[in-house]
Structures are given as structure tokens and as C-alpha cells.
Amino acid sequence: MSDRIKKTALQAVMAHRWAITQDGLRTILSIANREGDVEALKAKLGEAMPDTRSVEMRGNVAVVPFAGPIFRYANLFTELSGATSLGMLTLDYQKALEDPSVKSILMVPDSPGGQVNGTNEFSDMVYRMNKIKPTLAYVGGTAASAAYWDISGCREIIVDDTACLGSIGVVATFQDDSKAREDRGIKSIEIVSSASPNKRPDLSSESGQALVRKELDALADVFIAKVAKHRGVSVEQVRSEFGQGGVFIGQHAVDAGLADRIGSYEEVIETMQKDFSGSTSVSFAVKQSTEIGGTTMDKELKELKEKTPKLYAAVLEIGHKAGHAEGITAGALAEQQRVKAVNAALIPGHEKLIATLAADGKTTGGEAALAVLGAENKLRDTAAAEIEEDAPAAPNAAEPGSETAEAKQEQENVAGLKAGMARVRA
Q: Among residues 244, 223, 60, which one has the least CA distance to residue 153?
């Protein structure tokens, strides 16, 4: 860009008054001034991630924005009004999780909230997957109600001084248009089954409103419990200190516990690019091939997931605690070695016991051997007792000739069995 064009662009920026965030104005100035080379400028502005609706890449950070009212599914309203579809948001987040070039994810909401339907599932997904790939949230505008619920599972919530957070609670609205309909000559008659009086409560009555409030309270309990779990605080603290449906601005949100710190958008991205540059994308350790010692782990983990889900869950838990792909791989190897040791303790006749011990995710090979030996001893003790009980009585020494060859052989068998059991116990 020539100096003349650069000067003209800067003059155009300087000639206006802006109601814009500091970061936004800096971006505009960067464009006007063309700071750095083209590649640096592209990194500053971000590039769209392929096959996503709105995700952009800032270096190794995937920025996932969502704005406006939140609906579970995309519809004409979301398309026309710029609202957010949880279905599309989930797909964008999933894409960022699976992309190996993405080392961390930044959720950027600017939403007053939306439908409860689907919000809990998405929030739980963020909370779980954040343990695999770091997911943070930056709020420069509003993250209220369902939008705050969505980001509550993030590893950290950073906010601008003017950000608005909270509005934890659930509402329902109803419109009584019966009078207007009657004025137009429209009269509705509805008959409800006698066994279902609460199917159509009279919302103009206290009892009818109480029924609806009971439903809303149940949903709010879930909302509050999940926020408490995700933020690592008690339910009582959320109920008493998180605004009781009100909102907090900036530092007040941090002080109340709804957010972690004050920061700027660019500072957060810069920090994430540095802090999480060594993180690796696991793609749940099944979609990527990780070879260790000549063994392809993704195939074995897939088989583990299909055949023994509990075992697979134990492997993932080990990996989640480590927080990276190497941890999951190490967990997989450790679990495979444990299962192999447990299977090695098999004594014919105890296959079911071995299968149970192998699938519990915790029994060691030594513990399995002791358990199987104990079960085998119990079986042999039982068998010996039954044989001894069924054996003919010892001949009376006072009656010469009464001892038969068959009885002698039976007695020898019992003695041999007991001697064998003693050697096994030894």
C-alpha cells in the first residue's frame, strides 16, 4: 500500500467518532495502516474455518462466536434475525474439537439467552470436552441466562469491563387472547380427559399458575446445579450470590464468581496461542492413529469401546485427567496391560469371574489371581465335602471282612483329593 493510500485510509478513520470497543478500533486502525505483512494481517483478522458456519482461526485458536436469541434448531427466524441455532453451534464446536490444527477454543457469546431445550446438553458437552481440548469464553457484550449456561462449563470465563452476565433462571409466558377471539366471533371448546385435569391448567387461577411455576422451578434447579458444578461452587452459593435472576457488570461478575477475570479479546487470544501451543488434538483418540511400540492404538480403542464400554470409559477417564492425547494413549496401554494380566489368571471354569474383573477397570492381575484361586478353592472344598458325604461309611473294625475293595478305593480317592487341595492352598 502506498503512503498516499495509507494516509487517506487513516484520515477516513480519524474523521469519525466511534462507539466501538478498543479492540475493534485497533483492528480498524491495523487495516488502515496495514501493520506488518499480509500474512500477519490475515492472522490478526482471522480466517474462516472450512465447513463451519462462523468459526474463525486465529493462529492455533478456534474462535466460536454466537449471538442473538438461542434456539435449539435452525429455522426461518434464526436465519432472518441473526439468532443462534444450538444445532449449528454444536457442529461448529465439534469441528473445532476434531481439527488437529486447533490447540484451544474460545467461545464468544453475545446473547440474552434462549430456549432451555438443548442448552443443558450443550453445556455438558463443553464441560466434558474442555478437559480434552482447552475451551475458554470471552464476553465483551452479554452472556445472559441460557447463553451463560452454555459457557459455564468453560475452563475460564474472561470478561470486558462492560460485559453483562447472569440472569440465571427460567421463565414462561402465556397470552390470553380468548376475549379478542370471542369479539371476532371465535369460540373454542376443549375437552380434557377426566384423568388428566392438569393437562390444561387454568392459568388465570393461582392453582394453575402454581403448576407452571413448579415446572419452571424444576428446570431452574437443573440450571443452578449445572452452573454450580461447572463453576466449582455450591448450589447454595449460586442461589444466594449469583444474582437470583439479576445480572452483573464486568468486575462485579468476577467478584460474585460468575467470571474469572477482566481482560481484552486480543489479550485472551494472544495468551491462548502461547499457553496452549503444545496441546494436542485427541479427536477422542479413536479418529487419529497413534502408534506406540508398533501397535495402532485407534483400532484397539475402537474395539475396546464396542466390546467393553466400561473399560473404554476408564481409559478416557485416565486420559481426561492427563488432559492430552498422550495421557489417553498412556491410559490405554496401562488398561490393556491390566486386562492382559487379569486374563492370564484364568482357571477353566471361572471365565465369567475373569470377564467381570477385566471389565471393572480397577482389578489388578495379582488381585484377579487371588480372587480366582479363592473361587477355585471354594469349588474344590464343596466338591470334596460332597464326595466325602456320599462315600460309604468306613467298615467296622470289629467285623473282619466287611471292608470291600470298592469302599477302599473310594476312601483312597477322598484322601487323594484332600491332599491335592492342600497342595493347591500351599
A: 223
